[in-house]
Amino acid sequence: MAPTARPTVAQPLSPHLQIYRLTWTMAMSVFHRLTGIALYGGTALVAIWLVALASGPVAYSYVAWFFGSLIGRLILFAYTWVLMHHMLGGLRHLVWDTGVGFDRQRRLSMARMTLIGSVALTVVIWAVALLVR
């Protein structure tokens, strides 16, 4: 049996990224993915801290020195922001899973509040931590 020729049908093309205009929702979606990736690095830092803690005072002193240094604190500050941003982005998606918040204004305000809230929570967490210390 000979194969039959299929008629050529023009397939729709997906628009290229250059056509899209960057919106708050798109930017926060990208940041949500990036913060999810960055959380792997932060989890490695927590694992290093726990292994050093279990290994004894000498190993822990090296890790405590690093996290107490300026670069260590900047990394921890960034990790706190990553954690807060990813959490708020996840809550935004959870709200969307209920079918709420898809109108243009609410989508925009939720995306903006994800960024503003993550910065504010990070500053509050660090202010409290430094005051308690």
UniProtKB/TrEMBL annotation:
<keyword id="KW-0349">Heme</keyword>
<comment type="similarity">
    <text>Belongs to the cytochrome b560 family.</text>
</comment>
<keyword id="KW-0812">Transmembrane</keyword>
<feature type="transmembrane region" description="Helical">
    <location>
        <begin position="62"/>
        <end position="84"/>
    </location>
</feature>
<dbReference type="GO" id="GO:0006099">
    <property type="term" value="P:tricarboxylic acid cycle"/>
</dbReference>
<keyword id="KW-0479">Metal-binding</keyword>
<dbReference type="InterPro" id="IPR018495">
    <property type="entry name" value="Succ_DH_cyt_bsu_CS"/>
</dbReference>
<protein>
    <recommendedName>
        <fullName>Succinate dehydrogenase cytochrome b556 subunit</fullName>
    </recommendedName>
</protein>
<keyword id="KW-1133">Transmembrane helix</keyword>
<dbReference type="InterPro" id="IPR034804">
    <property type="entry name" value="SQR/QFR_C/D"/>
</dbReference>
<dbReference type="InterPro" id="IPR000701">
    <property type="entry name" value="SuccDH_FuR_B_TM-su"/>
</dbReference>
<dbReference type="GO" id="GO:0046872">
    <property type="term" value="F:metal ion binding"/>
</dbReference>
<keyword id="KW-0408">Iron</keyword>
<comment type="function">
    <text>Membrane-anchoring subunit of succinate dehydrogenase (SDH).</text>
</comment>
<dbReference type="GO" id="GO:0009055">
    <property type="term" value="F:electron transfer activity"/>
</dbReference>
<dbReference type="Pfam" id="PF01127">
    <property type="entry name" value="Sdh_cyt"/>
</dbReference>
<feature type="transmembrane region" description="Helical">
    <location>
        <begin position="113"/>
        <end position="132"/>
    </location>
</feature>
<dbReference type="InterPro" id="IPR014314">
    <property type="entry name" value="Succ_DH_cytb556"/>
</dbReference>
<keyword id="KW-0472">Membrane</keyword>
<feature type="binding site" description="axial binding residue">
    <location>
        <position position="86"/>
    </location>
    <ligand>
        <name>heme</name>
    </ligand>
</feature>
<comment type="subunit">
    <text>Part of an enzyme complex containing four subunits: a flavoprotein, an iron-sulfur protein, plus two membrane-anchoring proteins, SdhC and SdhD. The complex can form homotrimers.</text>
</comment>
<dbReference type="GO" id="GO:0016020">
    <property type="term" value="C:membrane"/>
</dbReference>
<feature type="transmembrane region" description="Helical">
    <location>
        <begin position="37"/>
        <end position="56"/>
    </location>
</feature>
